[in-house]
Amino acid sequence: MKLSALDSGEPCLKHNCALCCHETKMYLTWLDINRIVKLGYSLRSFAERSEGIWRLKNIGGRCFFLEGSKCKIYKFRPYGCRLYPLVYDQEMKRAKLDNLCPHKEEFIVQGDDLRRLIFVLKILSMGNVFKKSSYIL
Ligand code: SF4
Q1: Which atom of ligand 1 is nearest to the CA of 11?
Q2: 54 burial level (CB within 10 Å; 0-12, 13-18, 19+)
Q3: Which one of 49, 87, 98, 123 is at 20 to 30 Å from 113 when CA atoms are compared?
Q4: Cα 97 to averaged position of ligand 1 atoms, centre (Å)
Q5: What residues make up the domain containing 61?
Q6: Is residue 116 included in any domain, yes or no?
């Protein structure tokens, strides 16, 4: 089986899958929020705060940005979406490929992916603090 880089999206396209964009709980770092707000979206149109962090909002059970089976902001999507199905398991205290992805065996995790995940976790552990004034609310 050909393995694909996490951010290639190849298995997703091959299987026409957008499962992880349904009932998403994807976290947003302040870098993600800044990037998306700059596209012209207001923060509260695409995000909501739960469990102390900003997450992508679902509309009718689907990610706000999901259009058909495509992401409307694919080039600008959050870091968590670029890394998925690589996630950090809080209980096991290690990175793993998420069992919820039906095609996780088709992805390959490379050194850079783990570094990127650690970077994102560091930003989130800073409390997702951001200057509200830099957002269009
Ligand atoms: S669930 Fe897995 S295969 Fe499906 S869209 Fe998400 S990452 Fe891609």
Answers
A1: 3
A2: buried
A3: 49
A4: 11
A5: 4-126
A6: yes
